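Re: the request from the purification team.
They wanted to know what the chain is likely to look like in 3D before they choose a buffer screen. I agreed to run a prediction and write the result into the notebook, where they can find it.
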Amino acid sequence: MDWIEWFGEHFIGLFNAGGEQFMNLFNSIVPTLVVLLTFTYAMIKFIGEDRVTKGIQFASRFTVLRYTLMPILSILLLTNPMAYTFGRFVKEEQKPAFFDSLVSFLHPVTSLFPYANAGELFVYLGIANGLAQAGYSQSELAVRYFLVGIIVILIRGIVTEQISKYLAKKMQNSAVKG
């Protein structure tokens, strides 16, 4: 009988702990997320959606901007999963590389802009809390995580674009022979 009582107390305790965690998030990060999203959408309205679109199309012409600025802007402006729609601004043969850059930046972006991929915030917070307990600065971690993410997405975009070109050429050659 004792084990049933113990199970009942601890079972509901699990939900109580979950409720406390939810309220902690609601009282701390949720208002920040709402303000960041409001600011982002206000900036798009202020600049003008047409101007934003033309600027992004211009940026897609350049490799460095295509695999750094575009994924960053798409995640910050549209958040996950709507960020994938930025792929419409790149050529068809560049879409796999753009997508690779974009998905590779979904975790690093949470360090400074948690609203952009809130579903994965637990990954960054787990690392950040561990470092805070060890006595390290969470601010330094956030900036480094973000900057390393930019370098990684650039490398991944360039490499994936080259792989895609190679595979497209190989498929074209085999279609001609066949």
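For the purification team: The chain has a mean pLDDT of 85.
Please add any questions underneath this entry.
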